[in-house]
Write a structure and sequence with these properties.
The protein is of the alpha/beta class. It has 22 helices and 11 strands. It has 3 domains: about 1-65 and about 130-245 and about 335-405, Rossmann fold; about 250-335, no CATH class; about 405-485, no CATH class. The chain has helices at about 5-20, 25-40, 55-65, 155-165, 175-185, 190-195, 215-230, 230-235, 245-255, 255-265, 270-275, 280-285, 295-315, 325-335, 335-350, 350-370, 375-390, 390-400, 410-420, 425-430, 440-455, 465-485, and strands at about 45-50, 80-85, 90-95, 100, 105, 110-115, 125-130, 140, 165-170, 200-205, 240-245. This is Dynamin family protein.
């Protein structure tokens, strides 16, 4: 919440100021009107990353259905947009033809889109409408593989991701090297420097780490916590999560027949089964001590991977004696629950903030690409909004609290996280009071918190970073009090 002019109001005014300035430039005005329209549309979250980072699998796991990928005719893929709709439908957008509806076949496992007749390089976007609750508040974008930065430090695919998406799940195998350089290239603008709040870094395919051991997922989560403490990493994202999209998806779509086959495998001793899980070929073609058709084994391998089969059979042996129990435990172990919670906390709950950020980035890019009389004032307005936007500071503080680098004790850190919206952005949730609390109760809680955190912000014994963090909390409390006062008029 912004004290004074709200962020969304400031951005709306900026866009209209830019429209007036570029009124004689049709291309620019189309771009600005598009930015205005996007403010009212669902949040656009791109799932990006290098080749074989598991983008489509993570997208399917989030949706709980197998709908991706939709590959382009040249095999390289296109930008595929998944949005809510009354029935499955796909529309192709090309570089030289009008939009064309594509034939869609829905099956028990998802969908297939007919791309017969399209030539390499023709397709630019495919928009898929799919009826699911997962897309009520967001549009998910499956992107082509991102290559490393070129000689100018740019990645063309990442450049388009930043233009088209409000937020990014950036998938990486190890969170180092080229992947970090790609993310660092996203901060070469005023918006990128001032508000690096639209990226969650995801360590993906973590089930394959350490040879696919049963504890690989736990080890990956510990690694994610360690890496997030790296200043180079946490300067580029608001959170770092570890997630096996394959195992998360398996948990969401596991069938009774899948469970029955895994239960059969679980009857084999751990030592005997492990010899068959040394390779995919040995698992599918070897002689198992239990009767299990090679086709069923191949389907399990496709669904779970070797590491997933190893994990699932271990879980069945140790108490997951039904499909429901096994599904829940696979989802929990995969890291998918934590990833979805992070998306809700940093993306969905902050939809208006991220939409405003996209609009600011769009205006800044336009001004830098097409400077002219009056555009300097427009750029100054962008920078002024960035400097005054408390919403961005809240997200940055949440990220700092996430990795404990401020040094607050556990109780203070928990209260700060709640007050700046880490559990949700509603007043009652922020203030930790009952959801039906009276205005008087909300006012007293906000006022008490304001004075408590103001004392911390002025405490000379605290480090500068802690005092600045406390100042953000104070401003959040002031915003809540202003909202309550305005509501009472």
């Amino acid at each position: 919440m912004t004290v004074g002019l709200r962020l969304d109001e400031a951005v709306w005014g900026l866009l209209h100021q830019a429209l007036q300035l570029y009124r004689d430039n049709p291309r620019a005005t189309d771009h600005l009107r598009h930015q205005l329209a996007q403010l009212e549309q669902p949040l656009r979250i791109a799932i990006a990353g290098p080749w074989r980072s598991g983008k489509s699998t993570v997208l399917n796991a989030i949706m709980g259905e197998e709908v991706a990928p939709v590959d382009g005719p040249d095999g390289s893929g296109v930008f595929t947009w998944y949005e809510d709709g009354p029935q499955p439908r796909a529309t192709a957008y090309s570089t030289n033809q009008p939009p064309q509806e594509l034939a869609v076949a829905k099956s028990a496992t998802g969908m297939r889109v007919d791309l017969v007749g399209w030539r390499a390089g023709e397709l630019r976007d495919i928009v898929v409408q799919w009826p699911t609750r997962a897309l009520r508040q967001v549009t998910l974008i499956d992107t082509p593989a991102i290559t490393g930065p070129d000689e100018q430090g740019r990645s063309p695919v990442m450049d388009r991701v930043l233009r088209d998406a409000d937020a990014v799940l950036f998938l990486t195998r190890d969170g180092r090297g080229t992947d970090l350089r790609v993310l660092e290239s996203t901060r070469d603008s005023a918006v990128g420097q001032a508000a690096p709040v639209n990226v969650i870094l995801v360590l993906s395919r973590v089930d394959e780490a350490g040879g696919g051991r049963v504890d690989a997922l736990l080890t990956a989560r510990q690694l994610a916590r360690q890496q997030y403490r790296d200043p180079r990493v946490n300067a580029l994202c608001v959170d770092l999560a570890a997630c096996s999209g394959l195992i998360g998806l398996a948990g969401r779509v596991l069938s009774e027949s899948d469970f029955a086959a895994l239960a059969q495998l679980a009857r084999v001793s751990r030592e005997d089964l492990e010899t068959h899980l040394l390779s995919a070929d040995r698992f599918v073609r070897g002689e198992l001590p239990v009767p299990l058709d090679p086709g069923v084994r191949a389907a399990l391998l496709d669904r779970l991977g070797l590491a997933g089969v190893r994990l699932a059979t271990t879980l069945v042996r140790t108490g997951c004696d039904s499909r429901v129990k096994l599904s829940a435990e696979l989802i929990r172990r995969s890291g998918l629950t934590e990833l979805r919670e992070s998306m809700s906390r940093f993306f969905v709950d902050r939809r208006d903030t991220l939409k405003a950020r996209s609009a600011l980035a769009g205006v800044e890019a336009l001004v830098r690409a097409e400077p002219g009389p009056g555009t300097g004032e427009l750029l100054s307005a962008v920078e002024q909004i960035l400097a005054g936007a408390h919403e961005f500071r809240e997200l940055c503080l949440l990220a700092a609290l996430r990795n404990a680098r401020l040094g607050f004790d556990a109780e203070l850190a928990e209260e700060a996280r709640r007050l700046v919206g880490g559990d949700g952005v509603g007043l009652a949730i922020r203030l930790g009071v009952e959801h039906d609390a009276t205005v008087q109760r909300l006012w007293e809680a906000a006022s008490d918190a304001q004075w408590r955190w103001r004392d911390l912000a002025e405490d000379p014994l605290l480090r500068l970073a802690q005092r600045r963090g406390a100042q953000v909390v104070v401003r959040s409390c002031e915003g809540m009090l202003a909202e309550l006062a305005e509501g009472g008029r």
